[in-house]
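Explain this one:

_____
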Amino acid sequence: MRFLVISALVLACACEDTPPPRTGLGYTANAQRAYDEAMKEFNSHNWAESQPLFTEVKRKFGHTRFARLAELRIADADFEQEKFAEALREYKAFIHDHRADNEDVEYARSRIAETNFKQISDSFLLPSADERDQAAIQDAYGDLTSFLKDYPKSKQGPHACSLLEEVIARLVRHELYVARFYLARDNFEAAVSRVQFAIRNYTGNEACPPGRATETKSENAFGLVPDALLLLGETYLRMHRADDARTSFQVIVDRYPESALAIQARKYISGMGSKG
């Protein structure tokens, strides 16, 4: 009898240490319950508190989709805490580990682009940041454009377009800033080159047709075109290239008549005409 009691106790202990089965409805249901509990903390903006719970979902239920979702939520929690370097690393690791082209990978790619966007510093407009601080904004531009190209029908597309519009506007403003920097130093050719580069490379956005962005701002790349053309015309005037200057001003008048700069463009054209 004593032997039977001991045997029963040993079996009971062994059963407690046995991990739950990795298949079946019970396993999946338990995974969802654990994930939902973690999401309660996440949705309450308790980002740090939610992460250990998601880690447990990954550890205990690695053979379910909830484990993959938990990986993304851990990265999202870092993103929300502005731990952008950590979030970026986690999103990239997710894509590396789950190479299948599915909606989870699509989501991770969109978040990589947004994370790079969040790391853009306003200091990139400073003269000393001409080349050094362009990495984050160029990464955001490349990630957003490639994402929109690879996933043209993505549900994240409108938001990605909003981010891309702002990135492009920042790039254009940077080019115009640098052009004015050169113009102030009478480096006219360099100024013209930067303005033309901005117009040629950043004012045509096929990935985001008008109306697709969810949060279009009043000043975007297209709204900055009159600024670029006016600066180009003014630079041509300094170079004594009257015909090229007139062409730049006339484009503003013809294509952007509602722009406040159209008035200034007309004044330039009128003044050039009176001179002969």
Observations:
- The longest helix spans residues 157-184.
- The chain has a mean pLDDT of 84.
